[in-house]
């Protein structure tokens, strides 16, 4: 048998052995046996010297080819065996990925704060400043400056917690109107501000009354601000808070600090305007009070009511939250029951 | 205030359903609370005639009545009313009927006798008790004799009239009468109003002035007038008048009183009738009450008077509380023969104060507080006298006695169409505006550049041009006004740095697992002054509703502890909260407190609950300290903050509380709530912190400047030591930091151990020190020397034993 034929046989049997190898160890033994210094190829190459000069390069190159083919086959088999082991291991590591993830502590913002933040964002986007007024007010700012002189019947609408004769818990955020009007320099442009905060009324707490609740006051004063601007502004706010499909209607009302005064209703969220218990069949829900700032309020704050005018509004985030989320007891906002608070993200 | 749809329809052509009319009123005038009929919810109530009555054999107070209800056979009904009478027409609730309170009537046996229905009293068919005439208070009601048997009862009692319940705002006192409502709706519906208020002429030749004298001061009663009617026959009013009154929510009394109330509801002028013969010396005076005077009013309440009260007095004593209610002693009763009717205008402020003091809010006081039409007082008085004359066979005197009469001039307001459009954002023409004013019945005089508008006295609340903008807006229709946004020079919107920082604080604490709580700012006296670092006077409400909300809080923690208690009482054990809000400190000389922004946290239980793979850990001091430290880090204050042990806050655990200092200033504290306080609040072990947010906001923040990240490797060395238990981490840390040299970049405590293998009174601490040079590779020698130096000073200054 010629040397070349020997090599051919070595290759064939070698490839068969490689294919048949069952693990890395066996494969390694085959590798040593075939390609090692004492292996058949090395041995065969040693026999080259006995060949003719012309045959030597042909057989030598063939021998190298056989060695390379065997090496490749062994490497490939090795990779295949490793992959099998890894796959087995991965299979054994399988977990139930539907088990819950770890509990990462994360607090919830209070739902009233969320509504206030939303309102702030809406008005900041329209160029309003946000001003925070004192919670303990002078009677002068809370009432007189808001065109509510002593013994005015409208004071009955706002039962008050007094600290002294002149000092009280503010009953609305409106006094901030007067403070802002006094401080604002109209040479630098219009006054556009909102003032969110907590307010107090001398009420017995029940599902619809709370001695503490929130308000966001707003005011725009310039040389030409109209009732139409007020309507448009209230619509923007209502649409952004409740959604575009809700309509807004404005109807006459009375507040001493605005004239004309209006109240704004939006389509009832519960029945979408068809009429239900929540809206007492009217299809509308009252959401806020507003109006054109009363000339007396401007005058008392030192603003020329002939030249300047504008609108003001006051909204109740508590009421908004009740309407938006269907909360039917205002006291829920102040109990801080985690089972309640964590429902709002 | 109730408006009768039927009554309105006598004066206006209304093509709207009562509900639509209510909606129209709401959109143009005042809020409408509801639209209803007194027959709403009632069913199968018919006219019956009692044919016979027989005593119940087993129950003395029950009668077995055979009642004709229009069927072939009479209906047998057992009735307990004392006034059943054969031949009377009565209200029968047939089996299957619905009566007041949504009660269903069924066939039943009453003490063994079959009863097929019920004979009804007025309050049983839904009439509020306070409008049921006294005559019918204790028995079944008798319908008119000509009522047709078997008919539904509603039309006989006016119960099919739709009633519109108005919520009248203080500026719309004119809407508190039919007259005002008719004029207003006439303008809204664009109909010419012909409101006839002509009085029936007096029949008598006598003068009131011969029977009564009147005296009044304009400051108490700007207008005060009297008129006498003699020989009246006082009895129940005819049914039509009773119906009109009870539909409007007023109880019928007798024909004289009913007419005064009717005129009030029709014309808006409150009136009062006195029994002339009970008026001592026939002299009536409006005056301030004298201290200690007493009067018993018509509602049988005795009032002790002082100078807040204004009274009508005869020569001896008060006979009425002015503008509120008449006195019982001089009231008109069945025995009364001669009466004097009073029409006045009482000062709104005085009336309001009096009504509040006497807790007596009446239809009259409601109107005087809002004002009445000063131009129509005498007319209303004559109108009432005429009606009383007609309905009581009395004789009205010729004249009116006047105690006071303020001059009433109609208000004139100059206005321009340009300004109206400027304010409303409309583009109305002059003709549009004039047409609106004409609909309202206002007088208009065109002047060169403006309109002069004359306001009738019945619209007494319209005084300035802004009031007229409102009239134009509501009659033109708010729906017709466009929606635009203000056009101004650009304004810069946004939060101030302080507002931003408060918002960021909320987000940071939420991110660390604390839930945002909003508690009450008003608390009780004990809780208000807990958890305080500095003393302060408390701020107390003058007239709190409850003691629980009577003092302004001076800390946030006590509110959070209440919140924790509320949750834990309901089985929620893990409660992590924070609150941001104001507390109120007061100097003893000031009446007004200083408002300070605080932020506080409280954790009871653990930050999160156990899950299938992780057990939750109970919060401890170091958890909450970690939260506070991390929070302060986000405010760029890390380098200035220190924690100092403190045992002086009595609501806090003396060994587990640290003051938090910013430089040398105390800004708050952190620690465990004292176990006694925790059990007082009924909460489990709780850790808290409270910080003066204003101080944090105003503090100088560490400038943020980028430091090059070293490209040379750092070297770590550990130092372990044995040390007396009393020595604090902070003491050791300070020495390491001071002596560590320029390349010491970080000191981390990684082990604290006491117990086995450590001698009594000692503890073992271990720190990992990181050295780094950003300019070149650090040499071991340099680090070794630095560590040696640290060890040396630790040994010298704190007597530590390096291990």
TrEMBL record, chain A:
Location in the cell: Cytoplasm
Description of how the protein assembles with itself and partners: Tetramer of two alpha and two beta subunits.
Record-listed Mg(2+) binding positions: 259
Cofactor: Mg(2+)
Keywords per UniProt: Aminoacyl-tRNA synthetase, ATP-binding, Cytoplasm, Ligase, Magnesium, Metal-binding, Nucleotide-binding, Protein biosynthesis
HAMAP family: Phe_tRNA_synth_alpha1
Organism listed in the record: Fructilactobacillus lindneri DSM 20690 = JCM 11027
Entry superkingdom: Bacteria
Cross-referenced Gene3D superfamilies: Bira Bifunctional Protein, Domain 2
UniProt-recorded name of the protein: Phenylalanine--tRNA ligase alpha subunit
Flavoprotein found in the keyword field: no
Catalytic activity: tRNA(Phe) + L-phenylalanine + ATP = L-phenylalanyl-tRNA(Phe) + AMP + diphosphate + H(+)
Cofactor binding annotation: Binds 2 magnesium ions per tetramer.
Domain Aminoacyl-transfer RNA synthetases class-II family profile stretches: 111-343
One Gene Ontology MF term: ATP binding
InterPro entries: aa-tRNA-synth_II (IPR006195), aa-tRNA-synth_II/BPL/LPL (IPR045864), Phe-tRNA-synth_IIc_asu (IPR004529), Phe-tRNA_ligase_II_N (IPR004188), Phe_tRNA_ligase_alpha1_bac (IPR022911), Phenylalanyl-tRNA_Synthase (IPR002319), tRNA-bd_arm (IPR010978)
Gene Ontology cellular-component terms listed: cytoplasm
GO BP annotations, alphabetical order: phenylalanyl-tRNA aminoacylation
EC number: 6.1.1.20
Family: Belongs to the class-II aminoacyl-tRNA synthetase family. Phe-tRNA synthetase alpha subunit type 1 subfamily.
From TrEMBL, chain B:
Cofactor: Mg(2+)
Protein EC: 6.1.1.20
Keywords: Aminoacyl-tRNA synthetase, ATP-binding, Cytoplasm, Ligase, Magnesium, Metal-binding, Nucleotide-binding, Protein biosynthesis, RNA-binding, tRNA-binding
Annotated ranges, domain FDX-ACB: 710-803
Any one Gene Ontology cellular component term annotated for this protein: phenylalanine-tRNA ligase complex
A GO MF term: magnesium ion binding
Catalytically driven reaction(s): tRNA(Phe) + L-phenylalanine + ATP = L-phenylalanyl-tRNA(Phe) + AMP + diphosphate + H(+)
Keyword hit for Transit peptide: no
Entries under PROSITE patterns matching the protein: B5, FDX_ACB, TRBD
Domain B5 residue range list: 408-483
Subcellular location: Cytoplasm
UniProt-listed GO biological process terms: phenylalanyl-tRNA aminoacylation
Span of domain TRNA-binding: 39-154
Cofactor note: Binds 2 magnesium ions per tetramer.
Origin superkingdom: Bacteria
Annotated Mg(2+) binding sites: 461, 467, 470-471
Record's subunit section: Tetramer of two alpha and two beta subunits.
Family according to the record: Belongs to the phenylalanyl-tRNA synthetase beta subunit family. Type 1 subfamily.
PANTHER family per record: PHENYLALANINE--TRNA LIGASE BETA SUBUNIT (PTHR10947:SF0), PHENYLALANYL-TRNA SYNTHETASE BETA CHAIN AND LEUCINE-RICH REPEAT-CONTAINING PROTEIN 47 (PTHR10947)
NCBIfam families xrefs: pheT_bact (TIGR00472), YtpR (NF045760)
Descriptive protein name: Phenylalanine--tRNA ligase beta subunit
Classification of source organism: Bacteria, Bacillati, Bacillota, Bacilli, Lactobacillales
């Amino acid at each position: 048998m010629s040397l070349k034929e020997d090599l051919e046989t070595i290759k064939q049997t070698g490839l068969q052995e490689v294919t048949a190898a069952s693990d890395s160890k066996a494969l390694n033994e085959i590798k040593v046996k075939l390609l090692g210094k004492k292996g058949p190829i090395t041995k065969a190459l040693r026999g080259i010297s006995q060949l003719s000069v012309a045959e030597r390069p042909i057989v030598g190159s063939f021998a190298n080819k056989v060695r390379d083919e065997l090496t490749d086959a062994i490497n490939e088999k090795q990779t295949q065996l490793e992959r099998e082991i890894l796959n087995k291991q991965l299979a054994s590591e399988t977990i139930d990925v539907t088990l819950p993830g770890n509990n990462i502590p994360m607090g919830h913002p209070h739902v009233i704060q969320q509504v206030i933040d939303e309102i702030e964002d809406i008005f900041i986007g329209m160029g309003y400043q946000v001003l925070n007024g004192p919670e303990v007010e002078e009677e002068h700012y809370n009432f007189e400056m808001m065109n509510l002189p002593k013994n005015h019947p409208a004071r009955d609408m706002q039962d008050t917690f007094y600290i002294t004769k002149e000092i009280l818990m503010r009953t609305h955020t409106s006094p901030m109107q007067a403070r802002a009007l006094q401080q604002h320099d109209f040479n630098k442009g219009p006054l556009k501000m909102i003032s969110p905060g907590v307010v107090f009324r001398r009420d017995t707490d029940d599902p619809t009354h709370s001695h503490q609740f929130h308000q966001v006051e707003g005011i725009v004063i310039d040389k030409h601000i109209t009732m139409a601007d007020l309507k448009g502004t209230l619509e923007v706010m209502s649409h952004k808070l409740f959604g575009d499909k809700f309509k807004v209607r404005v109807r006459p009302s009375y507040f001493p600090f605005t004239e004309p005064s209006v109240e704004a209703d939006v389509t009832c969220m519960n029945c979408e305007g068809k009429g239900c218990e929540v809206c007492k069949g009217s299809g509308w829900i009252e959401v806020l009070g507003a109006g054109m700032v009363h000339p007396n309020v401007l005058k008392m704050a030192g603003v020329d009511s002939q030249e300047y005018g504008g609108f003001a509004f006051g909204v109740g985030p508590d009421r908004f939250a009740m309407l938006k989320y269907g909360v039917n007891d205002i006291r829920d906002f102040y109990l801080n029951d985690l089972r309640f608070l964590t429902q709002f993200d | 205030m109730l408006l009768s749809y039927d009554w309105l329809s006598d004066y206006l052509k209304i093509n709207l359903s009562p509900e639509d009319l209510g909606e129209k009123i709401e959109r143009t005038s005042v809020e409408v609370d509801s639209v209803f009929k007194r027959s709403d919810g009632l069913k199968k109530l018919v006219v019956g005639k009692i044919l016979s009555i027989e005593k119940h054999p087993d129950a003395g107070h029950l009668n077995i009545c055979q009642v004709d209800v229009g069927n072939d056979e009479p209906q047998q009904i057992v009735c307990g009313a004392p006034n059943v009478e054969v031949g009377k027409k009565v209200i029968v609730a047939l089996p299957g009927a619905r009566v007041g309170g949504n009660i269903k009537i069924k066939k039943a046996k009453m003490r063994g006798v079959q009863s097929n229905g019920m004979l009804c009293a007025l309050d049983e068919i839904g009439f509020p008790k306070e409008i049921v005439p006294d005559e019918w208070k204790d028995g079944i009601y008798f319908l008119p004799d000509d009522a047709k048997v078997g008919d539904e009862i509603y039309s006989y009692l006016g119960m099919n009239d739709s009633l519109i319940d108005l919520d009248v705002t203080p500026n719309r006192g004119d809407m508190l009468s039919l007259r005002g409502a008719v004029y207003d709706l006439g303008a809204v519906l664009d109909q010419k109003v012909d409101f006839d208020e002509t009085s029936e002429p007096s029949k008598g030749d006598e003068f009131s002035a011969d029977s009564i004298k009147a005296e009044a001061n304009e400051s108490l009663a700007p207008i005060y007038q009297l008129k006498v009617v003699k020989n009246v026959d006082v009895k129940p009013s005819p049914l039509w008048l009773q119906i009109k009154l009870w539909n409007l929510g007023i109880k019928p009394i007798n024909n004289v009183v009913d007419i005064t109330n009717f005129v009030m509801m029709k014309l808006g002028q409150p009136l009062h009738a006195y029994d002339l013969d009970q008026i001592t010396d026939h002299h009536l005076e409006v005056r301030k009450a004298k201290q200690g005077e007493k009067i018993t009013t018509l509602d049988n309440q005795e009032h002790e008077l002082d100078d807040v009260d204004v009274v009508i007095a005869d020569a001896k004593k008060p006979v009425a509380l002015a503008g509120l209610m008449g006195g019982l002693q001089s009231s008109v009763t069945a025995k009364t023969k001669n009466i004097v009717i009073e029409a006045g205008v009482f000062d709104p402020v005085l009336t309001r104060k009096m009504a509040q003091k006497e807790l007596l809010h009446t239809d009259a006081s409601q109107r005087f507080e809002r004002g009445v039409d000063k131009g129509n007082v005498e007319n209303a008085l004559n109108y009432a006298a005429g009606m009383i004359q007609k309905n009581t066979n009395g004789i009205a005197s010729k004249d009116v006695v006047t105690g006071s009469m303020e001059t009433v001039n109609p208000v004139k307001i100059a206005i321009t169409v340009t300004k109206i459009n400027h304010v409303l954002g409309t583009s109305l023409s002059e003709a549009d505006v004039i047409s609106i004013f004409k609909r309202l019945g206002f007088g208009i005089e065109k002047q060169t550049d403006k309109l002069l508008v004359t306001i009738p006295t019945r619209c007494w609340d319209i005084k300035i041009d802004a009031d007229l903008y409102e009239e134009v807006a509501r009659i033109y229709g708010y729906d017709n006004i466009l929606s635009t946004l203000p056009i101004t020079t650009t304004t810069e919107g946004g939060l101030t740095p302080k507002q931003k920082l408060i918002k960021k604080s909320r987000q940071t604490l939420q991110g660390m697992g604390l839930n945002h709580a909003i508690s009450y700012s008003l608390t009780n006296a004990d809780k208000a002054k807990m958890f305080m670092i500095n003393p302060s006077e408390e701020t107390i409400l003058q007239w709190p509703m409850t003691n629980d909300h009577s003092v302004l809080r001076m800390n946030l923690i006590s509110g959070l502890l209440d919140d924790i208690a509320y949750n834990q009482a309901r089985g929620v054990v893990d409660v992590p909260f924070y609150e941001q809000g104001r507390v109120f400190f007061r100097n003893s000389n000031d009446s007004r407190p200083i408002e300070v922004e605080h932020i506080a946290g409280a954790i009871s239980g653990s930050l999160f609950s156990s899950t299938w793979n992780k057990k939750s850990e109970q919060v401890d001091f170091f958890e909450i300290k970690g939260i506070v430290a991390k929070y302060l880090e986000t405010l760029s204050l890390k380098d200035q903050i220190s924690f100092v042990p403190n045992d002086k806050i009595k609501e806090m655990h003396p060994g587990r509380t640290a003051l938090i200092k910013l430089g040398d200033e105390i800004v708050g504290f952190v620690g465990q709530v004292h176990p006694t306080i925790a059990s007082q609040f009924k909460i489990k072990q709780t850790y808290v912190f409270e910080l003066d947010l204003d101080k944090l906001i105003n503090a100088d923040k560490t400038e943020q400047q980028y430091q090059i990240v070293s490209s040379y490797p750092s070297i770590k060395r550990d130092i372990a030591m044995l040390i007396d238990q009393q020595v604090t981490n902070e003491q050791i840390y300070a020495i390491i930091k001071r002596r560590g040299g320029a390349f010491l970049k970080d000191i981390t405590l990684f082990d604290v151990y006491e117990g086995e293998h450590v001698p009594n009174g000692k503890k073992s601490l271990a720190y990992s020190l990181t050295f780094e040079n950003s300019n070149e590779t650090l040499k071991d020698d340099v680090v070794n020397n630095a560590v040696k130096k640290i060890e040396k000073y630790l040994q010298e200054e704190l007597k530590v034993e390096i291990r």
